[in-house]
Amino acid sequence: QYTLSIAGTEATSPAALAEIIHRRGPALIVLDNCDAVDGFDNTLVELARSSAVRWLVTTRRRLGPDVQHIDMGPLQEEAAIELFRERASWVMGTGRLPDRDTQRLVEALECNPLALCLAAARANLLSPAELLKRFGSDPKLLSAPQDDAHQRYSSLERALAGSWELLSEEEQTSLVSLTVFMGSFALEAAEAVVGDAAIGRLQSLCDRSLLEPRDDGRGRVYRLPL
Q1: Measured between alpha carbons, how far is 191 from 178 in angstroms, rounded to an integer?
Q2: I want to staple 174 with a disulfide (CB 3.0 to 4.6 A). Which of 26, 97, 101, 201 is the partner?
Q3: What is the dihedral of CA 111, 106, 225, 126, to 10 degrees?
Q4: Alpha-carbon distance 62 to 180, whole Å?
Q5: pTM of this structure
Q6: Which residues neighbour 169 within 8 Å (Cβ) at sequence distance 6 or greater?
């Protein structure tokens, strides 16, 4: 309401807020980090009833079935390499990164955009080969050089902690159980460690982007990111 310059007394409900916004005419409204807002999917559906307004929402959990989703998973390798090179150039200035070492680093970071940006921030100090070697023994290397406690994405650890805090106790227990798998695993393997509630728990973890479903050519498998 503050961002849209709407007095709180005017918008006593999502329907009232939608009507106020609609009267302003065509608009694109971007809402970031809506993970922790309970019932936000129902509110968004109500707000989106106005054909004059489009909403772009970022969230680490899947909203309701009435909301169109665009999953932002790992990048394609070529796009991931381009992102790393672009961000690295910001801190390096001039200079060329070794092609093979850059590709190996991007593969090790699983083309994860946040991991790539954090690694690129170290490019003026460490080469891609050195980053790859040190990341294996010190994952905390992937953090912003000037860390800020209020920045949710200043490190992989902080980003994952934010997602962890959104889980229920049962979901947290299931996620910990799944860490016994070092690579991809099938539903039957997950059921062996999670129990009868595996299907529901895996669905929830996938919806919260803490589990990646993949097709390995033989069927559906799952993998923990990074």
Answers
A1: 10
A2: 201
A3: -130
A4: 25
A5: 0.70
A6: none
| Amino acid identity, position 217 | G
Answer whether 57's CB lies under 8 Å from 26's CB: no
Summarised one tens digit per residue, pLDDT across range 98-150 is 888 999 999 988 888 888 998 998 888 888 999 888 877 777 777 776 655 45
Phi, psi of 60 (to 5 degrees): -95, 10
Report the alpha-carbon distance of residue 11 to residue 3 in Å, rounded.
13
**Contacts within 8 Å (CB) and 24+ apart, 193-200:** 197/170, 198/174
End-to-end CA distance of the chain: 37
Instruction: Give the Cα separation of 14 and 195 in Å (integer).
Output: 40
Give the Cβ contact number of residue 120 at 10 Å: 23
Question: Using 50, 70 and 90 to split pLDDT, how confident is the model at 22?
Answer: confident
Rounded CA gap, 116 and 183, in Å?
21
Give the span between the Cα atoms of 105 and 97, in whole angstroms: 11
